[in-house]
UniProtKB/TrEMBL annotation:
This is Uncharacterized protein. Keywords: Membrane, Transmembrane, Transmembrane helix. The chain crosses the membrane at residues 73-94, 100-124, 136-156. It comes from Terasakiella brassicae. The lineage of its organism: Bacteria, Pseudomonadati, Pseudomonadota, Alphaproteobacteria, Rhodospirillales.
């Protein structure tokens, strides 16, 4: 509550947007409503007394419009696991791969990591000197750029 400590912080011009604190307020409303309705109302009153937005107390969260279909989860997991299993089998079959084969293995491993991670909820943000990506593509970048042995092989040849 920044406004209540204005004398210490001196943010006299601080005015949050109308949706500020909405997610926090929704969580409080959801989790405390069954335990203590009066506590939720006390918090709302305190927000109003400080002229802070109360949008989250008044509005429920929206549901996801597009839930992930089951087939997509199964397909993504199957492709990722298949590619990883294929890489293990090829690694056993080819004990001394060429530089090109290592390059292909690295690419397939990175793509399989992305396929497995495509259905993990949440947002992953990856930044490297070469690229920026989020989500499953971010996992592909992690798989691609985290193989130092490939760089050593390319420099050696």
């Amino acid at each position: 509550m920044l406004k209540s400590h204005n004398d210490l912080v001196s943010y006299s011009n601080f005015t949050p947007s109308g949706h500020a604190f909405a997610n926090m307020q929704r969580i409080v409303q959801r989790d405390l409503h069954n335990v203590s309705k009066t506590k939720v109302e006390e918090l709302r009153t305190e927000f109003e007394a400080l002229n802070l937005p109360t949008f989250g107390f008044e509005t429920k969260a929206m549901k996801d419009k597009h839930p992930v279909p089951k087939w997509q989860i199964i397909l993504s997991t199957a492709i990722g696991l298949f590619l990883i299993l294929l890489m293990v089998i090829i690694a056993i079959a080819i004990p001394n791969p060429t530089t090109f084969q290592m390059f292909v293995f690295q690419g397939c491993s990175a793509i399989s990591l992305g396929a497995l991670g495509a259905m993990i909820p949440g947002m992953l943000h990856v930044e490297s000197p070469y690229a920026r990506a989020t989500g499953a593509i971010g996992l592909v970048l992690i798989g691609w750029f985290s193989t130092p042995s490939m760089v050593d092989l390319l420099i050696a040849n």
